[in-house]
Structures are given as structure tokens and as C-alpha cells.
């Protein structure tokens, strides 16, 4: 894995391999303590049941967490058929049991085909989304249910890896590549509903986030053992923006941008753009304006080279 020099290692992104059994916030707090870094945030919660990639942003990198929150993600999930639970996973109480149809690859493929591409999904009550300032999961635990508007998501890939059927249980193993805002528990529940038997998640692992597809993750116990030395695994901030276009600015333009002024870069486009100075050093993120200029939106306040 790439690393920063020790002098810069309190600003960047660490790809944590979150263990199952703890919340994302608990994992973040432990990593902060082990690394001795106070300013940090994670980039999208993983359920306590889930394991896998949880990018942690430290120092100035917290300014760019939204770009990982909005990134595409990949999961491996194991679904148990025939049981519906309160929470959509194995941590919740079973509320309904139904017989499972005879499983074949052709049958399962016909059931999951409709969930590929752009679909509308109603988030679970057991999610961190907020209703009038309260997380939905807190309302759900209090026995309340509120109406949740559906959200348009994109399932780029939904692949059946394997399935098992026995007298004890029937399971599906799926690979899901999806857009931001996708709830895997809800996807599994909806597939179970389409099959007429119900389903819930019994295992979930996030494989990658955004551009971090070929990067190694570091386990929480490895960070604890290494202590401050684990800072060497913190990646440069700009790695979070690898999928965005970038521009290298002349010295004068970089000066104006640092002082909050929009600059004309000689090329028209739209959306976000990664900014580097004439030395190739990452400065931050800008956004194209309607007139073609680039305005600064998120800039580093410390040197990273």
C-alpha cells in the first residue's frame, strides 16, 4: 500500500478493514486512539454485522469525505431465504417464516434480473437516515414507523456467485456493485419478497469504495499492534479523487484560487475538478462555474509535500 511520510501522516486516508461486531463509529474511535490523531471521520457507515472497507479520513482529509460518501461501492453478501427479520439482517428478530421455492440458477437469475440498473428503493427503518432530526433506527427501536420516500439508486452489477439449499437453510451469495445510497439489507429483502419467501442478510462485506479497488486494507488489530507506526499506511488525500479530472495550475492562478478567487483555466467543463499547483502538489477541489471559470470549493490549509 502507498504511504505518506511521517511528517504528513496525520492528514490522509486509511483503508480500514472493519471487523464485524462493532459499529463504524466504534471502529473510528479505536483507530483514532491507536494512531494518536484527534481529527477524523469515516465515509459512510457499515452495519455492525458487516466487515470490509471503511475509508477513514484524518486531518485535512475530512474536508473531502463527501467524495467517498458519494462514490460507488462493491459488496459481497450472503442472504438467507425463507425468513424475514425486523432489521433485515440476522441481528433482528424473525417476524415471518415462509417455505423456499426449489432453487435453480435459472430461477434465481430470473428473480434478480429486475434489480439491475436504475431502480427505486425505500430505505429500511433500521437505517441512519434522519426524520425530523432523529435517526430512523432510533424511531424503529421505539416501535415507530414513518413514511420514507423511495430513492433512485443504480445497481451496476448483481451477480449470483453461488447458492445452497438444504433442509436446514437456503442461501444466496451475491456480488453487488452499486451507487451511493444503496441499502444492501433492503435489496436482499426486496429480492426475498420477489421470490415470495422473504430473506435477510447473514453476512456482508464491503470489497471496495470509489477508486480504492486494488488497494490493501489494514485490520484494526494490526493498527493497534503497530501504534503510531501504522500512520505509514495513511494514503495521500488526493487518492480519494482519483476518478475526478485534474488540472495543473500556473503559479499565478494557484495564488488567486488560494485567495478565494475563481480563475479561467482555458477549458470549459462542469462538475468537480482536482486542483494541483505548478509543482504538481495537491491543492484541493474546485468546481466549474457556468461561465467556464473554476472556483475553489475545498482547499488544503496545510502543506502536504
TrEMBL record:
Q: Which reaction does it catalyse?
A: uridine(55) in tRNA = pseudouridine(55) in tRNA
Name the chain's protein: tRNA pseudouridine synthase B
Give GO MF terms, alphabetically.
RNA binding; tRNA pseudouridine(55) synthase activity
What EC number(s) does its UniProt record assign? 5.4.99.25
Name the protein family: Belongs to the pseudouridine synthase TruB family. Type 1 subfamily.
Active-site residues, Swiss-Prot/TrEMBL: 47 (nucleophile)
Biological process per Gene Ontology, one example term: tRNA pseudouridine synthesis
Against Pfam families, the record matches this protein to: TruB-C_2, TruB_C_2, TruB_N
The record's section on InterPro entries has: PsdUridine_synth_cat_dom_sf (IPR020103), PsdUridine_synth_N (IPR002501), PUA-like_sf (IPR015947), PUA_sf (IPR036974), tRNA_psdUridine_synth_TruB (IPR014780), tRNA_sdUridine_synth_fam1_C (IPR015240), TruB_C (IPR032819)
User: What lineage, starting at the top, does this entry show?
Assistant: Bacteria, Pseudomonadati, Pseudomonadota, Gammaproteobacteria, Candidatus Berkiellales
The answer to whether the entry has keyword tRNA processing is yes
Is Transit peptide one of the keywords UniProt gives this record? no
Q: Which domain of life is it from?
A: Bacteria
Where does the tRNA pseudouridylate synthase B C-terminal domain lie?
185-241
- Biological source species: Candidatus Berkiella cookevillensis
Q: Which SUPFAM superfamilies match?
A: Pseudouridine synthase, PUA domain-like
Ranges of residues in domain Pseudouridine synthase II N-terminal? 32-184
All residue ranges annotated as the tRNA pseudouridine synthase II TruB subfamily 1 C-terminal domain in the record: 245-300
Amino acid at each position: 500500500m502507498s504511504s505518506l511520510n511521517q511528517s504528513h501522516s496525520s492528514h490522509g486516508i486509511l483503508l480500514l478493514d472493519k471487523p464485524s461486531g462493532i459499529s463504524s463509529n466504534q471502529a473510528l474511535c479505536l483507530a483514532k486512539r491507536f494512531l494518536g490523531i484527534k481529527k477524523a471521520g469515516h465515509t459512510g457507515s457499515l452495519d455492525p454485522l458487516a466487515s470490509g472497507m471503511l475509508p477513514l479520513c484524518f486531518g485535512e482529509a475530512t474536508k473531502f469525505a463527501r467524495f467517498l460518501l458519494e462514490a460507488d461501492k462493491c459488496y459481497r453478501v450472503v442472504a438467507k431465504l425463507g425468513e424475514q427479520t425486523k432489521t433485515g439482517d440476522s441481528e433482528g428478530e424473525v417476524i415471518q417464516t415462509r417455505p423456499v421455492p426449489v432453487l435453480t440458477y435459472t430461477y434465481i437469475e430470473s428473480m434478480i434480473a429486475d434489480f439491475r440498473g436504475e431502480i427505486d428503493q425505500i430505505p429500511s427503518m433500521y437505517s441512519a437516515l434522519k426524520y425530523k432530526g432523529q435517526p430512523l433506527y432510533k424511531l424503529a427501536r421505539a416501535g415507530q414507523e414513518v413514511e420514507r420516500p423511495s430513492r433512485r439508486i443504480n445497481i451496476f452489477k448483481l451477480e449470483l456467485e453461488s447458492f445452497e439449499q438444504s433442509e436446514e437453510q437456503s442461501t444466496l451469495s451475491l456480488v453487488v456493485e452499486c451507487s451511493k445510497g444503496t441499502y444492501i439489507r433492503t435489496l436482499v429483502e426486496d429480492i426475498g419478497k420477489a421470490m415470495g419467501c422473504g430473506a435477510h442478510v447473514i453476512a456482508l462485506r464491503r470489497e471496495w469504495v470509489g477508486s480504492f479497488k486494488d488497494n490493501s486494507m489494514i485490520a484494526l488489530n494490526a493498527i493497534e499492534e503497530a501504534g503510531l507506526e501504522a500512520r505509514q499506511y495513511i494514503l495521500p488525500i488526493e487518492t480519494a479523487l482519483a476518478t475526478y479530472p485534474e488540472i495543473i495550475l500556473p503559479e499565478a492562478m494557484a495564488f488567486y484560487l488560494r485567495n478565494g478567487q475563481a480563475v479561467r483555466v482555458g477549458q470549459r467543463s462542469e462538475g468537480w475538478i482536482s486542483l494541483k499547483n505548478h509543482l504538481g502538489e495537491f491543492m484541493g477541489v474546485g468546481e466549474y462555474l457556468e461561465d467556464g471559470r473554476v472556483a475553489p470549493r475545498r482547499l488544503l490549509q496545510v502543506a502536504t509535500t
